[in-house]
User: Fold this.
Amino acid sequence: PDRPPPRMATPLTDYIAGVYGAFGTVMAILERHRTGRGQVVDSALYEASFSFMEPHIPAFQQLGIVAKRAGSHLPGNAPNSIYPTRDGGFVLITAAADAVFQRLARAMGRADMIDDPLFATSIVRGENMSACDDAVTAWSTTLDMADVESAMDAAKVPAARIYTVADIFSDPHYKARDMLVEVEDDVLGPVTLAGVVPKLSASPGRIR
Assistant:
C-alpha cells in the first residue's frame, strides 16, 4: 500500500470503453425500435474505468477512506488471494466463507485454525488477513501446483492456477473454444491471435 500506484500492462480502459459503447449501441437500437427515435451513444474512457471503482466511491463519501493499492488481496476478505507453489507457480484460493475456510484448514492439515480466535470467523480473518495469508502460503509453498489443485478440488475449495501465456497455448480448452486462431500474414507468415469474443451461433465472426 505504501508504494506508488502501478499501471496496467494492457490498455484495459480502451477495451472497457469499447464494450460499453457496443452495449450502448445495442440499447439505443432497441430504444429506436420502440420509439422510432435515434440518440447519441457517449462512452468516455475515464468514465468507463471509473465505473469499476464503484465500492470506493461511497467508502470515501461515507467514511473518508481513500482507496490504496491492495495487490491481489480483497481488503477484509481472507483467505482470498494469490499464493505461491513450490514449483514456482501461483494459485488463486478463495475461502473467505466460514464453511469453505474450515474445509481449507483441514486440507492444509491446520484444523487448529478453525477454532483459533484469529481465524474462527470471516470477520476476524479479515482483520488478521496477513496472518491468515501467511498460513496458507506456508502450506502452498510445500506443494507443487498440481498437488495444490488436487487438494483444493478434493476439499471443494475454489481455486485456480494463474496462467502464463505458455499455459494458455497448451490448454486444450482454449483450442476447443477457438480462442487461439492462426491467420496468415504477408510478412510474418502464420500468426496466432486471440479468437472472437463473444461467439454468436449464427454469425460467429472471424479474424482477418
Observations:
- The radius of gyration is 22 Å.
- DSSP finds nine helices and five strands in the chain.
- The chain has a mean pLDDT of 93.
